[in-house]
Backbone:
């Protein structure tokens, strides 16, 4: 279970507050979707969850473990990250996925790590691409490589930062199916930020509408009301009955 | 690591070794290969033995060490700052070293107000290491100051690059002011010092450079997988368990230390730190397990070749090796960038 309590953050002492007492709870194997305008604090929350930034105050507890109190390496074993635009610096698919075991092997990868990578590549249908440069794959395949890198370390939580941003409709659908499979079959908790509310509705179990650094509205699929959308995004749209599938 | 890559690395190492041997036989003294070979085993004339052991070997060692060090330093700068244009001097290290050396030559060797001394007096002073020591002190001080300031912004790459440019400008301005008040002779000596010259190398300076380069290289090689993670961006690297801030600090510090020690002893040797990592990456890819040794070998090779050329075409006196590295490397570099050398297909 992921529990975020009273999380606050600002980039500098004199800069405005970005997260202002954020609270969020997500059960094991649940998919939580973060929605909100640009600048609402979603990316900052992800930077804190992945360890790039330290919160000013508050706590993030994952499976009874306070993430702020453990080393970057231990945190990486529990939390994985899939960014919006994926770039791999010309590494092969195999080596890219192997970097997902970095927290486990430290300085040099062992045979056991390579075996796990081979299993994941086989499972994700990437075995044929293993020796190819990951940067030269298509957008959908790149996302698959990024997911393979995320799950190869066997994390409890995966954070997806607007993962469908660079994908066409077909690849968006495939990605959403893949994410649902991860949550259902592996029991991995997923926290994902999305801009498209129809995609969000299709993907998520719980929804968190962020505004001014806090979760302004949270709930299940019934949270998508015209009033909530207007409050968060400032526009009133008719969303009844629409679905992307 | 692919077998093909290992093979290319071995070939590259063999080429460096062959080039080093070739350099041993080339010089302005017009010794025949046979005389050089005899001198290597301490046979033949005393002057031939002295040329091989006191001039050529320290010079070749300096090219091997500084070439490898500057090239790897450039590679690490480019990776940690995520900037293809980053070089060993990105933090303004060379400018600081030049100021330190100018201070020693112009102000402390007595040339500030008086004239009439010869150039060698200015460039060496009473202690041959004084100029190098002052250059090193200023470059290390400058690096520590910049890294200390950048810590306030968590070593954000753009802040580091901009702070480096600003600090470099400060040292350049200070050097200009110093040179404005220098005598003609002092100014000449200061300018000549700034030309890269491997002829200044001695066994002592080689050992000091070797220790700094080897220790840094060992650290960089151990961190190979972390640098590979950094190729995917800071956020991804952090999520993979890399302490990005600490890695950036240590990498920038060690890469700048290599530059500081090389520039302080040999003067400015430009371009090796930019072109060699790019050539290595184009040939063998960006995987740091390969690109670190490949950059080191490419750097050694280019500097050896440039030094040999500078000694061969200088008609008695060697041309500044820094200029030759650019003359030799830039056209090749442009060819590589424009795709004349096909990018490896991983």
Residues:
């Amino acid at each position: 279970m992921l529990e975020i309590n009273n999380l606050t953050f600002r980039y500098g002492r004199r800069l405005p507050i970005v997260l202002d007492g954020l609270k969020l709870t997500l059960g094991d194997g649940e998919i939580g979707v973060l929605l909100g305008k640009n600048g609402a604090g979603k990316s900052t929350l992800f930077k804190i969850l992945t360890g790039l930034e330290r919160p000013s105050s508050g706590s993030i507890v994952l499976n009874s473990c306070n993430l702020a109190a453990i080393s970057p390496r231990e945190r990486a074993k529990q939390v994985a990250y899939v960014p919006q635009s994926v770039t791999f610096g010309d590494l092969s698919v195999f080596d890219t996925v192997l970097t997902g075991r970095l927290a486990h092997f430290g300085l040099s990868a062992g045979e056991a790590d390579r075996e796990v990578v081979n299993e994941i590549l086989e499972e994700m249908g990437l075995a044929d691409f293993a020796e190819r440069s990951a940067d030269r794959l298509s957008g959908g395949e790149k996302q698959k490589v990024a997911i393979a890198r995320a799950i190869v370390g066997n994390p409890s939580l995966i954070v997806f930062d607007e993962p469908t941003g660079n994908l066409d409709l077909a690849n968006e659908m495939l990605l959403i199916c893949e994410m649902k499979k991860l949550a259902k079959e592996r029991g991995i908790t997923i926290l994902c930020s999305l801009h498209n509310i129809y995609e969000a509705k299709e993907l998520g179990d719980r929804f968190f509408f962020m505004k001014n650094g806090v979760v302004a509205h949270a709930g299940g699929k019934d949270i998508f009301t015209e009033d909530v959308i207007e409050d968060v995004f400032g526009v009133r749209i008719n969303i009844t009955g629409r679905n992307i599938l | 690591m692919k077998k093909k890559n290992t093979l290319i690395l071995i070939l590259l190492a063999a080429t460096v070794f062959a080039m080093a041997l070739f350099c041993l036989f080339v010089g302005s003294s017009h010794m025949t290969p046979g005389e050089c070979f005899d001198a290597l085993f301490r046979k033949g004339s005393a002057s031939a033995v002295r040329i091989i052991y006191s001039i050529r070997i320290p010079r070749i060692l300096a090219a091997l060490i500084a070439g490898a060090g500057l090239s790897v330093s450039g590679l690490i700068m480019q990776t940690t700052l995520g900037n293809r244009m980053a070089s060993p001097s990105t933090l303004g290290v060379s400018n600081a070293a030049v100021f330190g050396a100018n201070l020693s030559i112009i102000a402390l060797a007595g040339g500030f107000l008086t004239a009439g001394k010869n150039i060698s007096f200015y460039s060496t002073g009473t202690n041959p290491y004084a100029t190098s020591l002052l250059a090193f002190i200023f470059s290390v001080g400058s690096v520590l100051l910049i890294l200390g300031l950048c810590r306030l912004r968590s070593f954000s790459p753009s802040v580091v690059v901009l702070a480096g440019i600003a600090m470099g400008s400060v040292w350049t301005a200070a050097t200009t002011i110093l040179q404005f008040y220098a005598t003609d002779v002092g100014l000449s000596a200061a300018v000549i010092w700034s030309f890269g010259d491997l002829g200044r190398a001695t066994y002592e300076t080689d050992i000091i450079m070797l220790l700094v380069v080897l220790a840094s290289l060992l650290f960089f090689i151990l961190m190979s997988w972390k640098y590979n993670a950094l190729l995917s961006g800071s956020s991804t690297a952090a999520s993979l368990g890399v302490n990005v801030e600490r890695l950036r600090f240590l990498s920038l510090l060690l890469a700048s230390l290599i530059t500081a020690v090389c520039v302080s002893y040999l003067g400015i040797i430009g371009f090796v730190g930019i072109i060699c990592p790019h050539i290595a990456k184009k040939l063998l890819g960006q995987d740091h397990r390969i690109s670190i040794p490949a950059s080191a070998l490419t750097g050694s090779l280019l500097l050896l070749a440039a030094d040999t050329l500078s000694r061969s075409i200088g008609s008695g006196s060697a041309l500044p090796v820094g200029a030759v590295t650019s003359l030799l490397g830039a056209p090749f570099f442009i060819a590589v960038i424009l795709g004349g050398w096909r990018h490896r297909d991983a």
